[in-house]
Specification:
disordered N terminus; Trna Endonuclease, Chain: A, domain 1; alpha/beta; 2 domains; 4-stranded mixed beta sheet; globular; Glutaredoxin; single chain; 5-stranded mixed beta sheet
Length: 259
């Protein structure tokens, strides 16, 4: 039985990377392919890479329809706008001239696509692959939730939640080594780099540490003047000890019954 582009006969998860060989991002493809190779061998996940010339117009249209069929709360926005390169161009065609596209498939249908924007947060292919390398696809989807966006909004509008005199500096800030979910400045003049997760794990510890280091370097700051913070609903075992050892403040978001 022949398998058409983007279809998966197996009931397990698989990945398909679509790309254009002569695109401006061609130099980044070696790293992405290496990451996919590692994900595949480490977690037993099938993947393939398909060059744009192998796609007919009909297959391109079918792919876009498959991407649109993914639950909006999962795939977010996928049409290019405001300088963010996403899977579908403004002219409603596959945007492979400007970005590779990674399709996540389960039980023969697309369940996610990268890159995309969910709320105000841009989810890149590399970020997804880093999570998949660390936790595998199943654990990644279990850990991924919808808490991040509302928490970012609440904190950006009410920075004093983190203490008197705390000021909001920005959200989704690129610091060179990653994107900070939120940046604040406290009453003592220290910067606060915040990572928001639904279920925080060891990856979050590494992530906020890397982002804080990049922010410190970019602005030539004393590391003591940069606070690292993780805000989550819950966390994996021993995260409290890992955060404490890395000098990271850990906050839980929850509901307290008062009546």
């Amino acid at each position: 039985m022949s398998k058409q582009v983007g279809e998966q006969v197996s009931l397990s998860c698989s990945l398909i990377l679509y790309y254009k060989e002569a695109a401006t991002y061609a130099g980044e493809m070696v790293t992405r392919r290496e990451m996919l190779d590692t994900v595949s061998s480490q977690w037993g996940i099938r993947y393939e890479a398909i060059e744009s010339s192998k796609l007919t117009d009909d297959e391109g249209e079918r792919l876009m329809n498959a991407f649109r069929s993914i639950q909006p709360q999962i795939r977010g926005r996928i049409v290019t706008s405001k300088g963010k390169m996403l899977p579908i161009s403004k002219s409603k065609r596959l945007n492979l001239d400007n970005t590779p596209i990674l399709e996540v498939i389960r039980d023969g249908r697309a369940i996610d696509v990268y890159p995309h924007i969910l709320g105000t947060r841009y989810f890149s292919i590399n970020e997804f692959l880093e999570h998949a390398l660390k936790f595998g696809l199943e654990n990644y989807f279990q850990a991924r939730g919808l808490l991040e966006e509302p928490v970012v909004k609440i904190l950006s509008e009410n920075p004093e939640i983190l203490g008197a005199g705390v000021q909001f500096l920005g959200s989704e800030v690129d610091v060179g080594t990653g994107v900070a979910d939120i940046l604040f400045r406290d009453a003592e003049g220290r910067s606060i780099v915040v990572e928001v997760e639904t279920i925080a794990n060891d990856f979050a510890v590494g992530q906020v540490s890397r982002i804080a280091a990049g922010y410190t370097s970019k602005h030539n700051l004393d590391p003591k003047m940069v606070r690292k913070v993780i805000i989550c609903q819950t966390s994996t075992k021993n995260l409290k000890e890992a955060a404490k050892g890395a000098g990271i403040e850990l906050y839980y978001v929850g509901l307290n019954r008062i009546a």
